[in-house]
Amino acid sequence: VQLQASGGGLVQAGGSLRLSCTASGRTLSSYAMGWFRQSPGKEREFVAAISVSGGTTYYADSVKGRFTISRDNAKNTVYLQMNSLKPEDTAVYYCGSHRSGWGTMRSRLEYTYWGQGTLVTVSS
User: Less crowded by CB within 10 Å, the N or C end of the chain?
Assistant: First the structure.
C-alpha cells in the first residue's frame, strides 16, 4: 500500500486546514487509519484514528474538540479536519494504515504503512 498525504501548508493561529490521505495499490476501506505528527527533535506522536467503518474515532487529548478525522471509502480517502490551529500543532503530519484494526490505535508500532508526510506550519 502506498499512502499519499496532502493538504498541508502555512496558516495563522486560529485558522483551519484539511489534510487528505489517499492510497494506491489497495483500497483504504480495508484498514483502520490514523494520523500522526512529528516535530523536529520529537518522536512521532498520535493525533487521531478511525475504524474501518468510520463509526469509531480516537483523538489525542491535545487535539480533541479541534480536529476531526473522517473517511470516505468510496473515494478511498481519509481526512483530518484541523480547526483552531495553534503554533504547537506545527509538524509534519503522516497518515498510516493500521495493521489489524485491533489495539490501542495510538501506538505508531501498530501501523504498517505510512505516507510521506505533509508539513503543517502554524504561525502565531
Answer: C
pLDDT tens track for 63-107:
999 999 999 999 999 999 999 999 999 999 999 999 987 889 999
C-alpha R_g of the chain: 13
Q: Tell me if 71 sits within 8 A of 54, measured CB to CB.
A: yes
What CA–CA distance (Å, rounded) separates 25 from 10?
Answer: 30
| Residue 114 in grid coordinates | 505510512
Strand partners, 3: 23, 115
Q: Which of 38, 32, 28 is nearest to 3 (CA)?
A: 28
How far is it, in rounded angstroms, from Cα 36 to Cα 95? 6
Among 2, 3, 1, 19, CA closest to 70: 19
